[in-house]
Amino acid sequence: MSLIATILFKTPGIQIISVWFMTILFNFPMAFFWQICYCGPFVRWIFGKLFN
Questions:
Q1: 3, 12, 20, 27 - which has most CB atoms within 10 Å?
Q2: From CA 33, how far away is CA 12, in angstroms rounded?
């Protein structure tokens, strides 16, 4: 997903690998805490209600 976003929105040219890794490093903290603090518990709650 980060590779597609890098290609579409940043137009990296010849330095695609370095720009892609930089995009991953910038996105990782937000994605990690979003998953741990909000999305993960919410999805577990939904699946707990559906399948218990």
A1: 20
A2: 27
Integer CA distances (angstroms), 5 to 32, 36, 40, 41, in order: 18, 23, 23, 27
* Whole-prediction pTM: 0.67
pLDDT digit string (tens) for the chain, length 52 residues? 889 989 999 988 899 999 999 999 999 999 999 999 999 999 999 999 999 8
Q: How many helices (H) and strands (E) does the chain have?
A: 3, 0
Write 15-24 long-range contacts (CB < 8 A, 24+).
none
